[in-house]
Amino acid sequence: MKFVLLFLLFFFLSCGKTEPTNKVQGKKEESVADVKAAARGAAEMKVDEMSGGEQDSRQFMAKQVSQSIPKARMIIKIADLAMEIGKYDETMTQIQMLTEQFGGYISNSVTEIPYENVKRGTVNIRIPSAKFESMVAELKKLAKKIESEGIRGQDVTEEFYDLEARLENKKRTEKRFQEILRTANTVKEILDVEREISNVREEIERFEGRKKFLLDQTGMSTINLTLHEPYPLTVSSSGGFWATIGEGFEDGFRGFAVTLSGLITFLIAGIPVFAVIFIAIFLLVKWYRRSRAK
Hints:
The protein has helices spanning 2-68, 88-101, 132-141, 157-183, 187-219, 241-293; strands spanning 75-84, 105-115, 118-128, 145-155, 220-228. By secondary structure, the chain is of the alpha+beta class.
């Protein structure tokens, strides 16, 4: 009986010691798991940092590459061309055909007849900038004689890209004001924000108008063309050599008439003066003869 009681006591004591041991082992396993989880998280964070750093590096490199790439030049090209041609109407037809062929258009055209059977005019042509030089070369082929030629250009690259940056900033400012407007509570706040939005919108429209103008001027070059048919050797208002001779006779008769008219005017206007002078001379001569007779 005592042996059984001792056995039971020993059994219970051994069970009591086993539970703490199991608890310690469980705690050890939990701590080991925590350490592994922490290490795994740290490793993942390290990988994320490395990937994020790599991504930032790639973005930085992409930005540097984009900045190093030269931007397209924005050049406003204008040509002034004066020339003598054969037949005005035929040449104008050829100019219209060339303009359409090169993808351009005639913005203005003026024709006049300053002399008989002689036409001259001015033509303003807008042509794509890529075909500007080719169009000028083709127009020169239509001339009998090139009287003057000039090509000038204006570089607006800096202005254009600066305008783009300003425009983007103004659009972001407008967007922020619109967000503020949605959170405005009082009437005064709403009116103030709307006034700022209106001012920013005016600047945006002004920038967009200038940008559109620069794109038009750089995308389409201008050719100012002056052309005329051959002038007569002697030019007169009526035209022709014999007409000039006739005008010479007319001018001569007109000059003689003017001179004669002036002489008659002088004589008539001077009659009182001439009469006084004649009387004075007569009295002096009479007095001189009497003085000699004595």
